[in-house]
Specification:
Number of strands of chain A: 21
Low-confidence stretches of chain B: none
Structural class of chain A: alpha+beta
Number of domains of chain B: 2
Largest sheet of chain B: none
Radius of gyration of chain A: 23 Å
CATH architecture of the largest domain in chain A: 3-Layer(aba) Sandwich
Structural class of chain B: mainly alpha
Number of helices of chain B: 16
Number of helices of chain A: 13
Largest interface: A-B, 26 and 23 residues
Helix content of chain B: over 70%
Oligomer: heterodimer
Distance between the termini of chain B: 26 Å
Strand content of chain A: 15-25%
Largest sheet of chain A: 9 strands, mixed
Shape of chain A: globular
Number of domains of chain A: 3
Shape of chain B: globular
Mean pLDDT of chain A: 89
Order of helices and strands of chain B: HHHHHHHHHHHHHHHH
Low-confidence stretches of chain A: none
CATH topology of the largest domain in chain A: Rossmann fold
Chain lengths: ~475, ~300
C-alpha cells in the first residue's frame, strides 16, 4: 500500500506543500511524516467522524439558491494549511497597512475629500458607488474608526507571491470556521499537531470584544455590546451565535431593539436596557427603515439618528462599502501612498479599468482568458470565469459591460496556489486562498486567525462556500 | 434578558418536556394494549392518550385493527399534529436555534442531536419493529438535556426560564393525565397512570394507610417530594418565578405570581378526602383552568407581543 502523500503530484502552479522537485517544503516535513504513517482507511474514518461532529454541532451555513434554505456543513479538510512565521510577518504587516489606508480613505471621503480633490481617486467613481452613503458625510464616528473588523482575501500567484484579491470591509464572515476547525482537528486528529505548535486562535472573540469596548461612546465606562443578527435564516447565523457566546455579549435581532430620544435600548424581561455598541451583521440598507430600506424589519427605526448623535457605536461603520467596491479596489495602492507615504507591502491583482475605452475593448476581446466580477457583488455570485465559460455567457457579459462599465471589473486569471486536499479518499492538489481577519479598536491588530478556503473541484478557482468550497484549519507558526 | 429570548427558552423547555412525557405515555399505552385486557379497550385507551395531550383525531372512524398504528403515527411522526413528538422536537430545536447564544454548546448539541436523529428515523421501520426503541431514545435524550441544562448553564435568569417551562409543562401534563385516566376504574388503570408518570417505584414506598385510589391521586397531585407531582412541579415554577422577579416567596409582585400562589395554597392544604368528595374530574378541571390562566399571565408579563411598526 502506498503511503498517503507519497504520490502527491502538484500541478504547474505554486504548491503550498511541495517544492519544484516535488519534495515537501521545510515547514511541511513533519506533517508529511505523520500523515505518511497513517493508513488510508484510518484516514477515511476520521473524515467521516469529523463531518458528523460538525453536523451535530450545527456548524452549518444556509445556501440561498436552495429555496428550502438547506443547512449544510462547510466541507472541512483535515490536512491543515501551514504558514511559516516569515510569511505571516509579511502578511500581517501588509494587511494592517492596507486597513490603515482604507480607514483613512473612508474618513477622507466622508469629510475633507482630499484624495478626490487631488485627483488620486476619481470623484465620479466614489459618488457612483452603490455603497457610498451620503448620509455619512460629516458624521463623526468614535475614534475615527470605520473598519472595526475586516477580512482581506489573499491568493498566491505562480511564483508564490501573496496578492490581495479583495478587501472585505462590511460584514466579513468565516471566523467561526477558524475557531471550530481548530477545535475539531485537535480532537479528531491530535497526532497531526506533533512537532507543531500553531499560534492559538481561541482568543479572537475576546480580542474582538475588547476592540469594540474601546470604540464605545464616551458616555459609559462599562459599555453594553450587542451583536445584531438578521436571524436564524441568515447564512452566517451560526457564526453570530458562536461569537455572542464566546464574547459574552447579547445576540439581538431588530425586533429586540427600540430607539427612544436617540438612545438605543433592547427589550428585556426587566424592561428596557441601554445598548452602547452594536456589532452588526446586517447590511447598511437594512439598519434603519427610516433612512434606508423602508420595508426592512431587520434593523431598528431611529437607529441611524442615535448613531449620528454619537449615542451608539455601529461596527463596522455605516458606509464602509465604498472602500471595498471592486471598482475602487485598483486605487488601494494609491491610497497607501497618499495617506501613509509608504509603498504597498502586498500587491493588488492587476485590474482593468472598464471605464477606459481601450481597456474595455481589450477586455471584451479577451473575455475567454479573464475573470469578470460585478463591482457590488460578493460571495462568488455574478462572476464570469473566462476559461470555463461558454460563448453565450461571454456574449451576455460583453453586452452587460457595454451597457454599464461601472458595474464590472476584469482581472487576469490568477492561478491560485494549490494544497494537498482529501478528495474521495485520495490526496490531490486543490486551489486555496487565505482570509486573515483584522481588528481595529484603538490600534490595528492581526490575530493569528485566518481562514483557508479550498476549491474542491479539480481546476476550480472559486473557493466561496456558497459555491461549493471547503475550508482547512490554518496554522500560523510562531517564532 | 431579552424578552424574545425568554419566550424561546420557555417554549423550548415546554416542548422538550412534552416530547419526553409523550414518549413515556405512548410507550406505556402501546405495551398495555398488547395484552388481552388492553387490546379489548384499545380504542378508549388511545382516546384517553390523545385527550391527555390535547390532540383531536377521529379514531372511531378507523378500522379497529388500525387504531393503534394510526394513533401512534399521529402522536409520533405527524407533521400536521403540532404536539406530535416530531413537532415538539422541531419546535424545541427551532427555539434553541433562536437562543443558541444563551445555551451552552453541550445543551445545543444534545438538542440538535435529538432533532437529527428524530428527523432521520423511519416511520416504516417503527411500524415494523415497534416504537419502543424510538420512544426510549426520545425519552432518554430529552431527560439528558434536562441534566445537561442543570450542569452546564449558570443557574440565573436563563436557567430559571428553562426551569419554569419544564416544570410548568410537567404539572400541566400530570394534571391532564389525572383527568384522562380514572384510577378508581381498576387497579390496572392506576398502575398505568403511575407508569405514565414514571411513578411506580417511588409510589411503592408510600405508606399503605389509605385506599389504593386515594393514595395514587394524593401521590400524583399532592406529594411534596415526588418530582412529577403537580404540587412539586408548581413549587419549582413558583421558586423560579420569584427568583426572576426578585420577590420574596409567599408574596407577589405580578398577576402570574398571585395566581400560582393561590393554586399552590390549595394544593398545599388540600386533603385527599375533600378532593375525592368533590370528584377528581371537577378538581383537576379547575386546576387545569388555573394553569391555563397562569401561562397566559406569564406570556403577558414577560414576553408581551411586540407591536409591529407600520
Amino acid at each position: 500500500m502506498q503511503a498517503l502523500l507519497e504520490g502527491y503530484v502538484s500541478q504547474e502552479l505554486f504548491d503550498e506543500f511541495a517544492d519544484e522537485r516535488g519534495e515537501p517544503r521545510p515547514h511541511y516535513r513533519a506533517l508529511a511524516r505523520t500523515v505518511g504513517a497513517i493508513s488510508t482507511s484510518d484516514f477515511r474514518h476520521r473524515v467521516e467522524m469529523v463531518n458528523s461532529v460538525l453536523l451535530q454541532r450545527g456548524v452549518t451555513f444556509t445556501v440561498y439558491s436552495d429555496a428550502r434554505g438547506t443547512e449544510r456543513i462547510l466541507p472541512f479538510d483535515l490536512l491543515p494549511r501551514i504558514i511559516p512565521v516569515a510569511d505571516w510577518t509579511q502578511i500581517a504587516r501588509g494587511i494592517a497597512q492596507r486597513v490603515r489606508a482604507l480607514n483613512a480613505f473612508l474618513h477622507d471621503v466622508y469629510h475633507e475629500q482630499r484624495i478626490l480633490l487631488e485627483g488620486k481617486v476619481p470623484y465620479d467613481l466614489v459618488y457612483s458607488s452603490a455603497f457610498f452613503n451620503r448620509e455619512m458625510l460629516d458624521v463623526r464616528v468614535a475614534g475615527d474608526v470605520y473598519i472595526h473588523v475586516s477580512g482581506i482575501d489573499l491568493i498566491r500567484d505562480v511564483s508564490g507571491r501573496y496578492l490581495v484579491l479583495e478587501d472585505n470591509l462590511r460584514t466579513p464572515s468565516g471566523i467561526s470556521y477558524v475557531l471550530e476547525n481548530r477545535d475539531v482537528l485537535k480532537r479528531s486528529f491530535p497526532q497531526l499537531f506533533a512537532e507543531y505548535m500553531p499560534l492559538p486562535v481561541d482568543d479572537y472573540p475576546i480580542r474582538l470584544r475588547e476592540a469594540l469596548r474601546r470604540v464605545a461612546p464616551a458616555t459609559t465606562d462599562d459599555p453594553t455590546i450587542a451583536i445584531l443578527t438578521p436571524g436564524i435564516y441568515n447564512s452566517a447565523y451560526f457564526e453570530h451565535t458562536l461569537l455572542a457566546r464566546r464574547m459574552g455579549v447579547e445576540l439581538v435581532e431588530g425586533q429586540d431593539l427600540i430607539v427612544h430620544d436617540n438612545v438605543v435600548y433592547m427589550r428585556t424581561t426587566r424592561g428596557l436596557s441601554r445598548v452602547d455598541v452594536i456589532y452588526r451583521r446586517v447590511d447598511d440598507d437594512y439598519l434603519d427603515p427610516l433612512f434606508f430600506r423602508p420595508d426592512s424589519a431587520l434593523g431598528a427605526a431611529g437607529l441611524f439618528n442615535a448613531y449620528r448623535a454619537g449615542n451608539v457605536t455601529i461596527a463596522n461603520a455605516v458606509g464602509t462599502g465604498v472602500a471595498d467596491d471592486k471598482a475602487v479596489y485598483p486605487y488601494v495602492p494609491a491610497m497607501i501612498r497618499f495617506y501613509l507615504s509608504e509603498e504597498p507591502i502586498l500587491d493588488n491583482v492587476p485590474t482593468y479599468d472598464l471605464g477606459d475605452l481601450r481597456q474595455r475593448r481589450h477586455v471584451i476581446e479577451h473575455l475567454h482568458e479573464l475573470v469578470v466580477k460585478r463591482a457590488t457583488a460578493s460571495g462568488g455570485y455574478g462572476m464570469l470565469m473566462g476559461p470555463a465559460s461558454t460563448a453565450a455567457e461571454r456574449a451576455a457579459f460583453a453586452d452587460a459591460i457595454e451597457a454599464n462599465p461601472r458595474e464590472f471589473i476584469a482581472q487576469p486569471v490568477i492561478q491560485l496556489s494549490s494544497h494537498p486536499t482529501i478528495v474521495e479518499g485520495e490526496i490531490l492538489p486543490r486551489r486555496v486562498d487565505l482570509r486573515p481577519f483584522v481588528l481595529y479598536g484603538d490600534e490595528i491588530e492581526c490575530p493569528p486567525a485566518a481562514l483557508t478556503r479550498v476549491a474542491l473541484e479539480n481546476g476550480s478557482l472559486v473557493v466561496n462556500s456558497s459555491q461549493g468550497g471547503g475550508s482547512k484549519d490554518t496554522w500560523i507558526l510562531g517564532e | 434578558m431579552l424578552s424574545r429570548v425568554a419566550e424561546s427558552l420557555w417554549w423550548m423547555s415546554r416542548n422538550l418536556e412534552r416530547a419526553e412525557t409523550l414518549a413515556r405515555i405512548l410507550d406505556v399505552n402501546y405495551t398495555r394494549t398488547m395484552d388481552r385486557y388492553g387490546s379489548e379497550h384499545a380504542l378508549p385507551h388511545w382516546n384517553a392518550v390523545l385527550g391527555i395531550v390535547g390532540m383531536q383525531t377521529q379514531l372511531e372512524l378507523i378500522a379497529p385493527s388500525e387504531v393503534a398504528s394510526t394513533a401512534l403515527h399521529y402522536c409520533t411522526f405527524s407533521s400536521e399534529n403540532r404536539t406530535s413528538i416530531v413537532s415538539c422536537v422541531r419546535i424545541a430545536r427551532q427555539n434553541a436555534l433562536y437562543v443558541r447564544g444563551e445555551l451552552s454548546s453541550e445543551v445545543w448539541e444534545a438538542i440538535n442531536g435529538l432533532y437529527l436523529s428524530v428527523e432521520s428515523s423511519s416511520p416504516r421501520s417503527i411500524a415494523r419493529d415497534g416504537p419502543s426503541s424510538f420512544l426510549r431514545h426520545v425519552r432518554d435524550i430529552a431527560q439528558a438535556v434536562g441534566g445537561i441544562i442543570d450542569a452546564t448553564i449558570s443557574h440565573d435568569e436563563v436557567w430559571d426560564f428553562l426551569q419554569m417551562g419544564r416544570f410548568f409543562e410537567r404539572a400541566y401534563l400530570t394534571n391532564r393525565m389525572l383527568r384522562g385516566i380514572d384510577p378508581s376504574a381498576s387497579s390496572i388503570e392506576s398502575q398505568t397512570l403511575l407508569q405514565m408518570c414514571c411513578a411506580s417505584e417511588p409510589f411503592a414506598k408510600v405508606p399503605h394507610a389509605m385506599s389504593e385510589t386515594d393514595r395514587v391521586v394524593a401521590f400524583l397531585l399532592l406529594d411534596p417530594a415526588f418530582p412529577r407531582s403537580v404540587r412539586f412541579a408548581l413549587r419549582e415554577v413558583d421558586a423560579s418565578l420569584h427568583r426572576i422577579s426578585q420577590t420574596a416567596g409567599g408574596t407577589y409582585s405580578n398577576e402570574a405570581e398571585r395566581m400560582l400562589g393561590r393554586l399552590l395554597a390549595i394544593l398545599d392544604f388540600a386533603q385527599i378526602g375533600e378532593i375525592t368528595n368533590e370528584g377528581l374530574g371537577p378538581f383537576t378541571g379547575r386546576a387545569g383552568d388555573r394553569l391555563d390562566a397562569f401561562s397566559i399571565a406569564v406570556e403577558r408579563i414577560y414576553f408581551p407581543r411586540i407591536p409591529v411598526a407600520s
